[in-house]
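Deviation from plan, reported transparently: glutamine complex.
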Amino acid sequence: MSDAIKHECGISVIRLLKPLSYYKEKYGTAFYGVNKMYLMMEKQHNRGQDGAGFASIKLDMKPGERYMSRVRSIQQQPIQDIFDQINDRINTEFTKHPEYKEDVAAQKNNIPYIGEVLLGHVRYGTFGKNSIESVHPFLRQNNWMHRNLIVAGNFNMTNVNELFDNLVQLGQHPKEMADTVTVMEKIGHFLDDAVAKLYKQIKKEGYSKMEASPLIAERLKLNKILRKAAKNWDGGYAMAGMLGHGDAFVLRDPSGIRPAYYYKDDEIVAVASERPAIQTVFNVPFEKVKEISPGHAIIIKKDGSSSINKILEPRERKACSFERIYFSRGSDKEIYQERKELGKLLFPQILKAINNDIKHTVFSYIPNTAETSFFGMVKEAQNYLNKKKEEQILSIGSKITQKELHAILDIRPRIEKVAIKDAKLRTFITQDSSRDDLVAHVYDISYGSVKKNDNLVIIDDSIVRGTTLKKSILRILDRLSPKKIIVVSSAPQIRYPDCYGIDMAKLEDFVAFKAALALHQDNNTMDQVEAIYKKCIDQAKAHDDEIVNYVKDFYAPFTANQISDKIGELLSPPEIKAQVKIIYQTIESLHQACPDNLGDWYFTGNYPTKGGNRVVNKAFINFYEGKNERAY
Ligand SMILES: NC(=O)CC[C@H](N)C(=O)O
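Because the crystal trials were delayed, the predicted structure below was used instead.
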């Protein structure tokens, strides 16, 4: 990925089903859960590096004993930082009290972070700022054990402002505008309600106040609470939470936009945003890790029983295809195949762009995430050549000489590592014109990998803004003197904002949008652009059901190829000699490569929730009025 669109989040939940002493005996440490959580978070660090957080709950503690702990960080290496803090604390306790080392009960009573229910989160923000206050997990504290709520999520709601207003209408006074707080308070409201009702009922049954508490915990129905809380959520989400007494849940949105996977055996239940995190950390095969179905939640009760519950009516599955193209780790068995397929399906377009001249073409990729699609692309080039070779050999027949045969077999796709990503370079004087020269050096090249007048095909997973391509990659590649540089994107053109967890909320950031705008200018059709703006304004106050995505009209006059060619023009730095061509994946090929993850609103404008059209509408108004802000 040459452009940084790193915005996602990762969640992990671990529930230890056996007493802590079991893990001490079997694995040598009662901190088994903490260690596993560290690994689960590290294995998902790709999903978020703005901040990280950890929380844990100890089961069955006595009044007055601490049973919840939390630690959060926005340091440079936030996961490392929180586990450094946790380790420091544990080691200090062990130094002060060497007798704790073999005494699991003493560890549980005196050392924080150890616990049976654990929640981890890695963050890239889509809402609010990147401050420590915005880092998950969030905590809603109460003196009643089961009214404590800890929440973390991979999510973005299109209607978070409305949800916030609803809380205010309920008479609440939220102390923060953070979207996670709004969502948490929504769950908290119905949790409070449920607890109050149960308490009344249990008192009626003749139990004392003290007896009521464990009975409430037992009878609490998280599925009902979640159903009421999530009723009006419009967005993509995998929301994870824990209640003070030890129940836990992960709820996935009805369209399955955000991912969530789980695994259970007789020692643990684990939930994560990505399957390979669970596979690697617990050494379990692919088949054993299941997806949480859209609209469903996994609920793990304090007693260790767990179940999958339908919370909201599932809608047509629209799992985010960007997870497959870029966000998730490519180590997932399915995602690995899909990325290769994406590369393969681009090959016919590439062949056309190089006029079938494989002999004078070097194939390469932009490090690091495009590597897998590169393998798919190269394999297809090999298949193509093999077919050609077969034809040639068969046409000559048995009289073929060794020399002829050798010449035919000797042609192979030329694959090279051309571009090298260096550590982020510092730009010393940001306003200075020398800045561009510094930026150009973020990437480097392998000298001698391309011959003068070769075609250079270089694959990337997506082109969002294209800034790095223009400012760094194309300039540095041009130094190798290729005749033509063909940049291939394994994702289609990004034309519409995301509002479900990726921070791409401004239209004018997209190079595809800029290209379509330039085409409108070239064609003197800016009146059409104004007409779209007027239509957007007219429906600004309309109900979500009625809003139409008129931004589609903005792209409609142009073919995808016209827009790609314009992008090529916009991204070519004036001083480079090579001709630049940009090739994008088609939507059809994307669907073919990722058949189970057809969520494609950023490419097609087809939003799976009603709020999506409102967001794109607002984004267009923002663009037209020159407002540089998120549209949700
Ligand atoms: N990428 C995400 O899932 C972000 C979660 C949440 N909206 C936040 O900004 O903290």
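The first helix runs from residue 20 to 27. We consider this an acceptable substitute for the interim report.
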